[in-house]
Amino acid sequence: MSNLDNGKPTRRAGAVILLVALIFALPAEARRAADDFARTLGSDERQRFEAWYSAQVFFDASLDAYWDKVEAKRAQRRAKRPRGQAFRDSDYVKDYPPKYSGPQISASLLRRWRQFRDRDKPKEEVKRRELPSVRDYLAQARRHFGFQPERIPEREFKRRYAQEALRLGLTKDQIVRIYALETGGYGTADMQAGVHPISGNGRPISSALGYAQLLAANSINVLSKHGLSFVERLSAKVRATRDTAPRRRLEHKLKVLRRMVRTAKSVPYRWSRHVKFSRTSRGMALHVMNIDGDIGPWMQVVKIADLKRMAERKGRPRLSGAEIELMNLAGPATGLEMMLETGMDKPTANFFSRRGYYRNSVVRGRDSKGLLEALETRMQANIKNKGAQEVLAVFDELLAGRPAPPRPVLAPRASNDPPPYPFQGPNLIAR
């Protein structure tokens, strides 16, 4: 029987040819290092290593092919979006990233291979780059603006934060759930990602600060977009303050705020430029406004309100806390896309970069609906923690002391936009 009769030898030969092609497609240095290491091994270890290494090459190639397909589909959707064209099932990759299931090698052999592979690399002592801490941001604010933010008791900060959220049309349930997810349910107004807000243990893993975990670039963005309204509100507070000492303190803060707003507006209004500026000492200085007792609550809640307003413009006036958080996690436009009927059952790999997908454990291995459910589950669990319970109590106090707001007139959803995501926690309050 010929190869053509049953196909099996032909397929096997094809696989071998493909594997050889993949191996030779590797950089010559990588191939040479693997060959040289293999020659140092005994026959059994060499056989295991070569099988593992070949499987790794094949797997890496399949992974690259998968993400190339994801990016091609994403480019198609990106081209459709400005034309207002509806997304179809064919615009998405429907399978999940491949998982390695090939031969394994022992931990000791893997360690020896890595040592051999890296043997010729420079032996420089590379000190781990320390990210700026709250103390560093405060130092830059004093240096550039002669400013020290006013610190107020934590419960009072939460009260002002809740007041601002209600003023901007956000609900208790939305805010508490976002707080519970972003801070684990125990965060403080000056909490920095990576540093425990109670014990102070840990080290910064990003610039994210506060209840909504705003990055330093977010602070620049907020001051550029909303800074003039902050100036107007603080000016009104100055005029309403009669006592000399508090008035002088507020007048100084107002001068600083004006300078910071001018600084933020001097940077082109593009996220990439805000990120770049946030890494400068002057950009770092703007970040401290997040923890000021007067301006901090406005800054920390306004990003959430901006997501709410964008959803309303897109015909989605009623969002859960998890849905708002999805917009924050994936990006506003992408988050809304994930909530469309066509996006709900698609793997999250369609909506995140390759690096972002593997870096965030809550994202991996889920579709959009599953991610929303996971966010909701985490929120529900963290609401039980002390800080979240305090935020709930503050909202209850504020709501008990004010008349019920009039029922809002909601904008109609676009005809091609499905109703809001149906998975709702038992305590979710519609906006």
Structural features:
single chain; 431 residues; mainly alpha; globular; disordered N terminus; disordered C terminus
Structure, described:
This protein has 431 residues and is mainly α. It folds into 2 domains: 3-117, no CATH class; 134-400, no CATH class. Helix content is 59%, strand content 0%. It contains 19 helices and no strands. Helix 14 (321-330) packs across helix 15 and helix 14 crosses helix 18. The chain is globular.
Blueprint (SSEs and pairs):
Elements: H1 3-6, H2 8-25, H3 28-38, H4 43-80, H5 107-117, H6 134-145, H7 154-167, H8 172-183, H9 216-240, H10 244-265, H11 271-278, H12 281-286, H13 296-313, H14 321-330, H15 332-338, H16 341-344, H17 354-359, H18 368-382, H19 386-400
Helix pairs in contact: 7-13, 7-19, 8-14, 8-18, 8-19, 9-10, 9-11, 9-13, 14-15, 14-18
Kindly provide the radius of gyration, computed on alpha-carbon positions and rounded to a whole number of angstroms: 27 Å
Query: Low-confidence segments, ≥5 residues, pLDDT <50?
Result: 1-9, 12-20, 404-431
Major beta sheet summary: none
Q: How would the global form be characterised? A: globular
Order of helices and strands: HHHHHHHHHHHHHHHHHHH
Number of strands: 0
- Compute the number of helices: 19
Strand content: under 5%
- What is the average of the pLDDT values? 87
Q: How far is it from the N-terminal to the C-terminal residue, by CA? A: 71 Å
Domain module tally: 2
* Helix content percent band: 55-70%
Structural class, from helix and strand content? mainly alpha
